[in-house]
Design a protein that fits this description.
By secondary structure, the chain is α+β, with helices and mostly antiparallel strands. The protein is 17% helix and 42% strand. The protein has 2 domains: 12-127, 2,3-Dihydroxybiphenyl 1,2-Dioxygenase, domain 1, CATH 3.10.180.10; 142-254, 2,3-Dihydroxybiphenyl 1,2-Dioxygenase, domain 1.
């Protein structure tokens, strides 16, 4: 079981969902990923931690008051050592700060929400007592993430500058795709959107590992979700791009059918 034993920075460390129906989201993702859930404290906006194999894996929460018109969406958070400095670099390289760095009580850490120059939303997490996901690559845990954007080359340069990463373009002309690196292996992907993506805004996509694609697909359908694309073959397994009943888009992948 790939437990996360170090406090990661300059790479994605956490996923959370802002939803219009918290009980429905918990029912779907709980069955889909085998999650158990922690408390939903009102003082933290009913932000609910999800656990895979007893380790923090992600979180689900209702939309914040006043954000009812905002889309239902997953957010990907990069771990940072200094949220203020990272926010300044984001602005300095053409991004926008949507939510300035703010503390999360009691001493969990500090978070911010930003928009990259292409328009994709992502978060920052400066750890306090909470470092982020405690498990990766196992059933119900984060296993990859990528940003789909209109100008992949320029957006790759943005994330390299903000987080001190390097990049490598994958060979082939079918899809322009870059891997962001902080050593080995890669930490995230940057994918070029083409004409087939017309009308879809740039966004970050979270990926979760599942033991069985067939079982996951059946659970998704049972809870009113939709398969948007897939299965898509990759060197690491079969990928499904899915949408839950409230509209949030996410992916899951498995080495097994």
């Amino acid at each position: 079981m790939p437990l996360v034993t170090a406090r990661h920075v300059n790479r994605p460390v956490w996923f959370d969902l802002s939803t219009s129906d918290l009980p429905a989201a918990m029912a779907l993702y709980g069955e889909l990923f085998g999650w158990t859930f922690g408390d939903s404290p009102a003082e933290l906006g009913f932000y609910t931690m999800a656990f895979a194999s007893g380790m923090p894996a992600a979180a689900v929460a209702p939309k914040m008051p006043g954000q009812e018109a905002a889309p239902v969406t997953w957010t990907v958070y990069f771990g940072v050592t200094d949220a203020d400095a990272s926010a300044a670099r984001i602005v300095g390289h053409g991004g926008t700060i949507m939510v300035p760095p703010m503390p999360i009580p009691p001493d969990l850490g500090r978070m911010a929400v930003a928009i990259d120059p292409d328009g994709a939303v992502f978060g920052l997490w400066e750890h306090g007592s909470f470092a982020g996901a405690g498990i990766e690559g196992e059933h119900g845990a984060m296993c990859w993430t990528e940003v789909a954007c209109r100008n992949a080359e320029a957006n790759t340069a943005f994330y390299m500058a903000v987080f001190g990463l390097t990049s490598q373009r994958l060979p082939g002309d079918a899809v322009e795709y870059y891997i962001l690196h902080d050593g080995e292996p890669g930490v995230a992907g940057v994918m070029q959107m083409d004409a087939a993506w017309e009308g879809i805004p740039p966004y970050w996509m979270p990926y979760f590992a599942v033991d069985s694609l067939a079982a996951a697909n059946a659970t998704l359908a049972k809870h009113g979700g939709t398969i948007l694309n897939g299965p898509i073959a990759s060197p690491y397994g079969q990928i499904i791009v899915a949408q839950d009943a409230q509209g949030a888009v996410f992916s899951y992948m498995s080495e097994h059918d």
